[in-house]
Amino acid sequence: MKKINFFSVIMALFVISLCCGTASYAQDYGDNLVINGDFSDGNSGFVTDYMYVDPEVTGTQSLQPEGRYTIGVNPRSYHNAFVNMPDNDNPFMIVNGHTTTTMNQQGVTNDPAIVWQQVVAGVDAGKDYEFSFDLRSLVSSNPAHIEITIYINGESMQSTFIGEGQTQNWVNYVWTNTDKSTSATITIAETSKVQSGNDFGLDNIMFREILPVCDMDVVITSTPVTCNGDQDGTIVVAMNGAKPFNICISYGCEPGDEEFVPLKTQTATYTGLIPGNYLITVVDANGCVYTECVTVGEPDPITAEIAYDDILCNGESTAVTVTGFGGNPPYTLFNEEGEAVATFDVDFTLDVFAGEYNWTLSDAHGCEAFVIEFAIEEPPVLEASYEKGEIACFEGTADVTVFAAGGTAPYQLFDGEAFAGDLVDGQITLNIPAGEYNWTVVDANGCTDLVEFEMVQPDLLVATYEKEEILCFEGTADVTVFAAGGTAPYQLFDGEAFAGDLEDGQITLNVPAGEYSWTLVDANGCTDVVEFEMVQPDLLEASFEATEIFCNGDLST
Fold it and tell me: Which residues contact 359 (CB under 8 A, 6 or more apart)?
């Protein structure tokens, strides 16, 4: 149980057990002093000159002749000329009215005849009382001629007349006990002059003290404690009304709470209060009581929540939203260096990079700050690299393999805006010709890295030749083959037969006449063909004719 110390003297002047709430200032009444005024206990608690009929004895003639009554719920059950109330389940006094003259003929000496009478005890001198009851006409066909007169201590107070049908009047009369009586004899008498149409019902008979109207104007303000756990709350009670006032305060507004009743008068200020509910009771000079459960508030401890999206790419930032709770806004956010970053009422958003953070959030009253510790991570740097082969021959191709590391898998490769392929296990191989390339690797978060490279190719391999003339039939001559472009060293093949290595880009072979198709092969296997024909002179043939020599020493021609 919480304890509270007040600077006022504790006095048990007035203790009131009420739940939290504010008193209403409508007209209040004391307890009903009439016994069985609602007839829930049947035919008891009153005297009458009329003859009682057991309500179990029903029938259209059960209340005949006039001057009889019963305690029932539906008048039609006892007289066929009475109104029908089949849905009523509350008993009341059902009376077959009679005139005083006819009642006297039946031996009733009271004039007028008593319908209902009760001696009410517990009446205080000089106080005002209200006497009231429901009066209902039971006549459904005849014009009504009902006249009822009220007597208190033998004095005629009021007469009332009601119309036909189920017309219902609430009859009330204010009586002041000026003769200092301690009881009141209350009489309801029928003073109708006409016998026909004077049947009626009585219910809800009450005799109550009229209590003073409490019109206190009480204004109560409370100030919460500054910070959670503090004891500096205040309550100020100010009022107008019948002076003097007595004001008391107790901690706790629920039954069973420990009560402290420091007394004050007129305007009261209570300081140094701990948080909680306080029952304020004000009693004015009329004895009117005002109660109100007042709360001295307490801010919740300062707390905060942060929300942010993951950083998608290394080196980027993300928006962090800090939302403050409790305390007393506006809040101030401080960074690790103690610098004020922002002041806000509910939340604040700022961009931050990856890293560990230690911020504090304080409120407008400087209450204990809340520490916000968090870390923001980022993916590793996306790095794209490549390995390329060499193009062996002019207008040939070679493989390039692109590798991806870091970032967030999976990865894709783009050549400009054209999709080049998906990387599998962080790599992709493409076969490409010579040229300059600028490719982009894109990870699952859209982060990018570039690979830039050039694929070069050898010059076109060109084979040429120079040949000499064969001078004689079946002779030979030199043929020199030259290589340009491609990739040295070079070799020469005659068909599949190796013809020789080129030195300094040339080779000379001595060949006979014929048609030749030689293949020049460079170091990368690139080829070019030289085709030529070696021609020779026709066979040189010599012949002669001579005359016969007939004599020794002669010449032939």
Answer: 322, 333, 334, 335, 336, 341, 371, 372, 373
